[in-house]
Amino acid sequence: MKKLIGLVAVIAMVVLPGARALAAETETQATVQRITGDNAQVQLPGEAVPRKLVEGEKLPQGATILTGAGTEVLVTPMSGTIATIKANTQVQLEKLSVTQTGSKVTKQSALLNLKAGNLVSTIDPAKKEINDYGVRTPKGVAAARGTNFSVTIRGTTYVVAVTNGQVSVALPSGGSLNVSSGQVSNGTTSSSMSASPPAGVTAQDIADAASAAMSAVATIAATPSLQTTATMGTGTADALLTASVQSVATNGTAAQLSQAVAQASVAAGSSTATISSMVSTAVTAAPAAAASVVQATAAAVSNNTAALSGVVSGAVSASTSASGAQAVVQAAATGAAQTAATPAAVAAAAATVASSAVTAAAQNTSVGSAAATAVVQSAVNGAAAGAATNANQGVANAVQAGGGATQISNSVNSNAAV
Question: CA 192 to CA 214: how far, in whole Å?
């Protein structure tokens, strides 16, 4: 009998081919990616007093981060998620874990307990199937899987503002309230950011929400480690950039949008498709700001041919008329020429703009290939105007001495595939 029991035990321990592996949850750590300011502290589990927080350190579940005036801390509590802890904030890393079945991650969890202050969360929507993220407050948990939102606790006031995606807010009376993109909630009711806000929500809260997405873009752009697949996972940084730009386009000002797209495009490097998608998103969401967005972005990436091509293709593909396409092409050429380092670079930028514009115009039925000559001339005109206001007076003078628009036109015609 004992032999039989032993045999059964051995068989039970053997994983037969095709058998389902058991899920295992493992505690993880958060990484401090960036600190701005000099008043950031952390109190680790078991420690009586907080100590100075250091960039790059790993924080365990249960650690509490405290920021003072003029200080912000950027933390990645789980893959594809950025938590920006604003000034004068106290937040505990209540839960950090990952669940795996075999080698496959089936769930990643992070619960941040916000005691006071403001926390901005940006979560990769591509990982929503495995994301389990929430911000605990005295009134309940604001939970999301893939979105951009901010939570503020100011005394007894509790504000959740969503700039992209949707957040589920636990209600004090039980149940939950869904807060969608462009809405703000006081934890009991919600309304559009553009309408009369719920009780206790101020104009500053709404302004902070609009800038929350800007904060996410700036954070990614300024943090090289967030742009690597090793830290964030394949495509995560690009996905967060695009989602954040959508947030600014929906809720921010034209100036904020121009700055956000420019920063995001610099962060995206030579990812032409990502830059094109971001610019297209911005132009579609805010057509009145299209020219300023495109000019600012082209100026920021003028020395990167692939990025500049992405700016132009995105802008032209989102244009709804030939005249609209010409306007954004001229804006792109102007911006690129304004920051080009040499007269040759001005001409090369104009050629890139013209070539990319012609290709995109042919694929946009609202513009059409018949607009090729017009968009090329727009690129020439824009480059000439941009060169005249180039920050480097030597470049401006050299281009002018060389014939200005004529010189640029010759370069475009000889180098661009138009």
Answer: 19
Q: Answer yes or no: is pLDDT of 414 > 70.
A: no
Least confident of 159-163, 181-185, 389-393: 389-393
Helix H, strand E, coil C: the string for the chain is CHHHHHHHHHHHHCCCCCCCCCEEEEECEEEEEEEECCCEEEECCCCCCCEECCCCCEEECCCEEEECCCCEEEEECCCCEEEEECCCCEEEEEEEEEEEECCEEEEEEEEEEEEEEEEEEEECHHHCCCEEEEEEECCEEEEECCCEEEEEEECCEEEEEEEECEEEEECCCCCEEEEECCEEECCCCEEECCCCCCCCCCHHHHHHHHHHHHHHHHHHHHCHHHHCHHHHCCCHHHHHHHHHHHHHHHHCCHHHHHHHHHHHHHHHCCCHHHHHHHHHHHHHHCHHHHHHHHHHHHHHCCCCHHHHHHHHHHHHHCCCCHHHHHHHHHHHHHHHHHHCCCHHHHHHHHHHHHHHHHHHHHHCCCCCHHHHHHHHHHHHHHHHHHHHCCCCHHHHHHHHHCCCHHHHHHHHHHHCCC
Residue type (1 letter), 265: S
Q: Which of 147, 183, 185 is nearest to 164 (CA)?
A: 147
What is d(CA 108, CA 178) in angstroms, rounded to the nearest whole number?
Answer: 22
Read off the tokens for 143. Answer: 């939970």
pTM attached to this predicted model: 0.64
Q: Quick: pLDDT tens for 71-98.
A: 999 899 998 888 989 999 999 999 999 9
Query: What span, in angstroms and rounded, lies between the C-alpha atoms of 332 and 160?
Result: 37
**Which token pair is 34?**
């960036």
Q: If pLDDT is split at 50, 70 and 90, which confidence band does 395 have?
A: low
Q: Are strands 190-192 and 166-170 parallel, antiparallel or unpaired?
A: unpaired
Q: For 364-374, how does the pLDDT look when each residue is reduced to its tens digit (9 = 90+)? A: 888 876 567 78
Longest dimension (CA), the chain: 102
pLDDT digit string, tens, across residues 254-271:
887 888 788 778 877 777
